[in-house]
Design brief:
The chain has 13 helices and five strands. The radius of gyration is 22 Å and the shape is elongated. The chain is mainly α and 307 residues long. It starts with a strand and ends with a helix.
Length: 307
């Protein structure tokens, strides 16, 4: 795909990867949402690896990250909403809205605690069924004033990680759901209307399966590309740091020289020389023409990551 879909927001992949954390004040709203989503995923993964469980507190923290610096940031950011919301067009009257979630107050708070219990309960049903039901429960509660869709999909991936099905958050279920947005929303609504979970669980499981197969193909292509690039570099009789950088390009396709020097424990001059040699043979190219803070990309790696 030509753009990267992350939690319902879109931006060019190269722009996302090149965005520096200390430059986000100048980012546009779409890029801000993408960077926030990436930051929230990283924070969630870090929390799991620190031994924390998925629950109300972690969800509040991740929602605050998602909304930080956007137009939706306000008094309720990072907290269970204190006002009522409805799902529908902005110009629509509340009685005509598609769905009205649980009203704010004790009922919503109790439902959110029950969601936490369900996510963490040790129960003998398939993990995908448990995750699908937890995702439906979260989206139906709609516990925050904004960001529920993005956050709910992040939490689903974290749930798969917490139960050992994933080691890293490399299953982009949001991309699959974005391609089927109407079917996704209809499926959630149908459960509320009928109480029949079967169709929704099948839909969710199909998404995990198809996206897992897509990601496996992508990983295979990246590994094959790494072999090709390394052989190209060695064919130029490059040795040392240039080869090491090339071997790691599928994990770090965008770089700055100072970051490269720090990663490999070498001087700025050595890192700059290695990058220059890789630019000369077309493995890397510089983005833009600025003299300071230069960004270099491995275009062939990005091409695989984009679709």
């Amino acid at each position: 795909m030509s753009t990267a879909a992350l939690e319902g927001t879109f931006a060019d992949l190269e722009e996302v990867l090149a965005a520096d954390a200390d430059e986000t004040e100048a980012l546009g709203p779409e890029m801000r949402e993408v960077i926030n989503a990436v930051t929230a995923i990283e924070a969630g993964v870090s929390a799991l690896r620190q031994g924390r469980s998925i629950g109300v507190q972690l969800a509040c923290e991740l929602q605050e990250i998602l909304i930080r610096g956007t137009r939706s940031e306000g008094a309720d950011t990072g907290r269970i909403r204190t006002g009522n919301v409805f799902i529908g067009r902005e110009d629509q009257r509340v009685p005509d809205s598609r769905f009205i979630p649980c009203p704010a107050g004790p009922l919503l708070e109790e439902g959110f605690r029950q969601w936490e219990t369900w996510v963490n309960v040790d129960i003998s049903i398939h993990l995908l069924v448990k995750t699908a039901l937890a995702h439906y429960q979260f989206e139906t509660l709609h516990p925050f004033h904004d960001g529920n869709g993005r956050l709910g999909r992040i939490l689903a991936i974290l749930q798969l990680m917490a139960d050992g099905a994933l080691h890293n958050p490399n299953l982009a279920i949001s991309a699959w759901l974005e391609e089927r947005d109407a079917e996704y929303r209809d499926g959630l609504a149908r459960v509320s209307e009928t109480g029949d979970f079967d169709a929704w669980v099948r839909f969710f499981a199909r998404g995990v399966l198809e996206q897992a197969e897509r990601e496996r193909t992508r990983v295979d292509e990246l590994l094959n590309l790494r072999h090709v690039l390394v052989e190209r570099v060695r064919g130029e009789r490059f040795r040392g740091l240039a080869v090491r950088v090339t071997e790691d390009l599928i994990g770090f396709p965008i770089m700055r020289v100072p970051e490269l020097a720090q990663r490999y424990g070498v001087s700025f001059e050595a890192a700059n020389s290695a990058v220059g040699r890789l630019v000369d043979i077309g493995v890397l190219r510089q983005v833009g023409n600025r003299a300071y803070g230069r960004v270099f990309v491995a275009e062939e790696v990005l091409r695989v990551l984009r679709y």
